[in-house]
Amino acid sequence: MFGITDDFSHLTGFALYFAIFALPFIQEDAAVIGAATASILGLAPTTFLIAAILSGLIASDAWKYWIGRLARRYEWAHKFAEKPGVSVAGDLVRKEFIQTMLTARFVPGTRIPTYVACGFFKAHYGKYILVLIMTASMYVAIMFTLFHVGGAVAGEQAKFWLPAISVTLLALYVGIRWYTHRQGQHGPMTPLTEERDHPLPGMPGFDGMPLEGHEAEIKKKEDADGAAG
Fold first, then answer.
1. Which of its termini does the chain have fewer beta carbons within 10 Å around, N or C?
2. Is residue 41 part of a domain?
3. Nearest to 89 by CA among 54, 113, 72
4. Tens of pLDDT along 45-74?
5. Is residue 223, in this structure, part of any structural domain at all?
6. Which uninterrupted H or E stretch holds 225?
7. Domain limits at 78?
């Protein structure tokens, strides 16, 4: 069992709920397993534990979107957006948002990059939060069910085979999209070939669009240049 979750058995009341809420900011999977463990041990009502872990998961991920939005204010955002494959990633966020967020929830190592990308490509924040709630709820429901049906051992083993199943399904999905690409049915999840890259409309630096937050500075400079001319 995760060492940090063992300490949950020594907590009660508000301290337990706060620990479960705060742990996702450090390690989300450990937090969910800790909450499920507390549930089967009867340390607190399952409903309250689910509310605490869901609140923690959503709060710990909601702000990551704004890292991507903030990045649009800097010069390196333009350089990054020109890299091969980045436009395809943008297409995934814009056109296959739910599938992309589901992948991020269940495939290790993809959550933070995906959530930051949502902000970078200006996905609708309200939609981002709604899908975040949906995927977090699915994950918590699966883990709590596994713990209550199969016990702690079966539940903890899920942290290995659940991602494996997710990766397998993702690979199958990519394979299907590859096949449709070969048949001429182009979609965003296709091989990262040069012809799939394209200018990203609305991105800082493209077509003379100023970096976000610098519009006033550029307009002031243009006005000054016009007056000098």
1. C
2. no
3. 113
4. 999 999 999 999 999 999 999 998 888 887
5. yes
6. helix 215-228
7. 63-228
